[in-house]
Amino acid sequence: MCLLLCFLCVLLLYLFNEWSKTLRVNPSAFSSSRNVTILLWHHPFKTHVNLKGDVCWNLYRIPHCRLVDQRSMFSSADVVVFHNWELIYNSQKLPTDRPRPRGQRWAWMSFESPAHNGNLSQFANIFNMTISYRRDADITVPYGELLPKEDKKLLGEDNLQKKTSLVCWVVSNYRPHYKRSQVYTELNAIIPVKVYGRWKKTPLSSSALLPTISRCYFYLAFENSLFKDYITEKLWRNAYRGGAVPVVLGAPLNDYKAVAPPHSFIHVDEFASVRGMAKYLQELAEDKKRYAEYLAWKKHWKVKMGTDWRERLCKICPQFNSLPQHKVYSDLQAWDSAENTSA
Ligand SMILES: *[C@@H]1O[C@H](CO)[C@@H](O)[C@H](O)[C@H]1NC(C)=O
Ligand SMILES: *[C@@H]1O[C@H](CO)[C@@H](O)[C@H](O)[C@H]1NC(C)=O
Ligand SMILES: *[C@@H]1O[C@H](CO)[C@@H](O)[C@H](O)[C@H]1NC(C)=O
């Protein structure tokens, strides 16, 4: 009798423990077990994005987020995502002839700068949300971001010994009228700039890119166009991962300050003249201690890239419930070409 009672107690305890475990693991399981369905209307740049399986959970631990690309799912999709490039070049059309299900949101997605987004005035009063690198988009996915580092290893000083070039630039698409070309020309007249890429007929394979940059003290992370928040892999991957200190030209200084570690980059606008900047770079490369201060952030932070289309889509889900109930971009062109308003 006593034995039986003991056994029952143990069983009860065990069951209770298992039950409470399920609660702990997923506290939201009871409130929002519904999947949010994201329909990708067409694949960006004709490259197929593999949406098979529960990609948001498997890759990013984002639950209840279903990515689909079957247009037959239109009527049950919570969000339909349209990549801008195909729309402006007329290879894809908006399904404006279909009745839009109540509550469905249409999302405009572009990671290009406004210089390459085309004329968006045709898209007035169509979209409910934006997906972009811009900090003021409904869904912001920057090209890169920082994550705190668990093992706080210091970067070895020996890295500096391997440096053979003062300033490097990788450029494929050289246009003389770009601001970046003018700054390069002026800089190169004062200090040597080693140029790689298709322009100088010295293209770098993707596996050679970062090792090459690592041998430079400074890397010109010059964007092709100057727009707010437009900060691309040139900073996050090429410079930061390559291990050169970035000299940046693109978004305003304050945009960089908002997302990049303090004292990790040099902005062209911080100098009254290119000559002044050239002098600064030279002095810095000769002063190991001061130069190393520009790499000190690496002890605490690591760079995470945000360039996977699946992540860009999955990121809608955690924010889905806090999107405004009703929102329409009545003038998308104006939104896209908005002036730099960051303080
Ligand atoms: C939610 O979506 C995932 C991934 O597609 C799927 O495996 C799961 O069965 C779905 N759950 C519900 C409740 O529909
Ligand atoms: C965009 O196109 C509209 C007509 O479709 C035109 O009125 C407008 O001037 C164009 N805007 C720009 C910036 O080219
Ligand atoms: C989305 O935009 C359409 C077109 O302007 C509008 O009719 C609809 O109410 C909007 N939906 C939401 C959820 O904001």
UniProtKB/TrEMBL annotation:
GO terms for cellular component: Golgi cisterna membrane. This is Fucosyltransferase. Residues 1-22 form the signal peptide. The keyword Transferase applies. It comes from Acanthochromis polyacanthus. Pfam families: Glyco_tran_10_N, Glyco_transf_10. It catalyses: an N-acetyl-alpha-neuraminyl-(2->3)-beta-D-galactosyl-(1->4)-N-acetyl-beta-D-glucosaminyl derivative + GDP-beta-L-fucose = an alpha-Neu5Ac-(2->3)-beta-D-Gal-(1->4)-[alpha-L-Fuc-(1->3)]-beta-D-GlcNAc derivative + GDP + H(+). Pathway: Protein modification; protein glycosylation. Its EC number is 2.4.1.-. It is an enzyme of class 2 (transferase). GO terms for molecular function: alpha-(1->3)-fucosyltransferase activity. InterPro entries: Glyco_tran_10_C, Glyco_tran_10_N, Glyco_trans_10, GT10-like_C_sf. It is a single-pass type II membrane protein; Single-pass membrane protein. Residues 34-144 form the Fucosyltransferase N-terminal domain.
